[in-house]
Amino acid sequence: MKILITGAAGFIGFHLAKRLLARGDDVIGLDNLNPYYDVRLKHARLAQLETQPNFQFVKLDLANRAGLTKLFATSHIQRVVNLAAQAGVRYSLENPYAYIDSNIVGFMNLLENCRHHHVEHLVFASSSSVYGLNTQMPFSVHHNVDHPISLYAATKKANELMAHTYAHLYQLPTTGLRFFTVYGPWGRPDMALFKFTKAILADLPIEVYNYGKMQRDFTYIDDIVEGVVRVLDHLPTPNPNWSGNSPDPCSSPAPYRLYNIGNNNPVELMQFIETLEQTLGKTAQKQLLPLQAGDVPATYANVEDLQQDVGFKPSTPVEVGIGRFVEWYKSYYGGDKIA
Fold it and tell me: Annotated active-site positions, please?
């Protein structure tokens, strides 16, 4: 198949592109290479992808309506995985307009092109952050998610609603994936594992929010990619049992589905840090801080729907995932590169 991956120079996009290229798909990788974090890391990921003859890179912003329309008109794209977004809960407090431009305007442009060019399946990244003030654990896609507590989360919820509208109006098959705290080699420098590793190796203190009383459903990158590939190959169909009297939030009489992709095994933040300390052979200096605005104390994914529909359930233990990340980090930054 010919597959468009937006955000292909990003953490998840890079790993997904490698996987699809390895199985023989033609991949168009789109990215605007914005400087939200070190662009050199994005270029290094792209350098690996560009060695493959069935990979084409396009530098483009999703908010560029004319440029995106031209790409679709000339590329015969069959399926799309949208991973491009302005990421980060905390940064949304500083620069809210970046989230509207990328996550709302950009996604709108993508929906319109998928509609007009008869894309077979649009898979898009949502986020565990949409659960917001929900406290019933584990988080289920059958729960309502109407109380986001960051603009980032609100844009991801909006993406789910926009996608459903297009599935309903135009029968565009769409699937949204709520990712839970993704980590692993080539990960994002703004994420906890990367920041902790960098600080500990440099003998600097790490910032531990909510005084360490946090739980996260840390999900290893290979599990995320496996889930995305299986969902991409599994086109959503209308739910014949859906009822407007008792509406199921994750399905529809339209070809639309939502899934969680999480490790379904929340880990205490202090346990996560201890595992990292053991892997590095160094003890962290911890600066205990209150819970930050827009953040939640715990995440925990129910993945029964994912398991039932595509036969997959993430399972990589954090001890294994952290070990692989540290091995990559030391290898990548062991030379003249600066983290």
Answer: 152
